[in-house]
Specification:
Elements lengths: L1 H31 L4 H9 L5 H12 L3 H26 L2 E2 L2 H24 L4 H24 L6 H12 L9 H33 L3 H13 L1 H12 L3 H26 L6 H23 L3 E2 L1 H18 L2
Antiparallel strand pairs: 1-2
Length: about 325
């Protein structure tokens, strides 16, 4: 049992701890170099909770395990909506502004739709990866302009930053340049080794249970790499910062599709597995639209709707697990 689950759980621990150190060190170093706090927040801090997904998907792609690579992206987005959104709403009804819902909810749906179309009709090659990464850069640039203007309300990228800083007060502050660099390098080493352990453990688990790598990627790996989003959204919910919890989910889903699947396609191009392309990716689009629809009714997600989301996630795992 340990031989099967040990590397998987160890990899998750290394990934989460290493991702935290990497982003803390990078933020401190950027601060010392005089980078704008808003730029740091929308990029380095915003990517903080998405580091485990990024490293795992790229490592899986390089290891020839596309089921884990893209299952992690799609499964994480489904878990963000159904599992994390459900838990956050059960703790305290999730509210949001109409501006954030229209702007960022629309972007989240659009990115999910584009991913489905690519998965069904195009190979996830380097051109697709470059377009996805460029689209994320464009989204962050627009977010920077809107946040700088201060007249459009907070967007999902800023809420993702706020969620992480709310979970770890003082995130990335203080410290010298040399110490910050060492922290970042230590975090990088941990996430690289953690990603390798997690991918090898996931492959071994799939072989040991006699099920597809895609199912493991969509469930065990996706939930494991989404733990930072779960923690930050729960803390935001307990602080009654429902808008931040919602923005954290939306921002994470946008980062996952554009940044993580884009980076995976750039570094390890290859087709999205047929099972994911034909069922799980369209389901990701459907639950994304459901989240926005629920949020649009009164600009909040109630506890009853949160219970519905959680039940939906339980049903999804039951359906795909052999």
């Amino acid at each position: 049992m340990f031989e099967t689950w040990g590397p998987l759980l160890g990899g998750m621990i290394l990934l989460i701890a290493g991702g935290d150190l990497l982003v803390r060190g990078a933020v401190k170093l950027a601060t010392r170099l005089g980078v704008s706090p808003l730029v740091i927040g929308l990029t380095l801090v915003g990517f903080g909770t998405s580091t485990p997904e990024l490293v795992t998907s790229v490592q899986a792609g390089l290891s020839g395990a596309p089921g884990i690579a893209y299952g992690n992206v799609v499964g994480s987005n489904i878990a963000n909506v159904l599992l994390i959104g459900g838990v956050a709403a059960l703790l305290f009804p999730v509210a949001m502004s109409s501006t954030a819902l229209k702007r960022d909810g629309g972007v989240m749906i659009a990115t999910a739709l584009v991913f489905v179309l690519v998965a069904l009709f195009l190979p996830a090659g380097r051109l697709v990866g470059a377009v996805f990464v460029a689209a994320l850069a464009g989204y962050l640039w627009l977010a920077f302009r809107q946040e700088s203007a201060g007249n459009a309300g907070h967007g999902a990228a800023a809420d993702k930053q706020s969620a992480l800083e709310g979970a770890a007060p003082g995130f990335g502050r203080g410290g010298g340049g040399a110490g910050a660099l060492l922290i970042a390098l230590a975090g990088l080493a941990l996430v690289v080794f953690g990603g390798r352990f997690l991918v090898s453990g996931a492959v071994s688990l799939a072989e040991g249970l006699g099920i597809s790598e895609a199912v493991i990627g969509l469930t065990v790996v996706a939930v494991g790499t989404s733990l930072p989003e779960l923690v930050t959204s729960i803390i935001a919910g307990l602080k009654r910062q429902g808008e931040v919890a919602f923005g954290n989910i939306v921002g994470s889903n946008i980062y996952n599709v554009l940044g993580i699947s884009g980076a995976t396609a750039l570094i390890a191009p290859g087709p999205v597995p047929d099972q994911i392309a034909r069922f799980d990716a369209p389901l990701m689009l459907a639950v994304t639209m459901l989240l926005v629809a629920l949020a649009a009714t009164g600009l909040r997600i109630s506890r009853a709707e949160g219970a519905l989301l959680l039940a939906g996630y339980a049903g999804y795992v039951w359906w795909i697990w052999p």
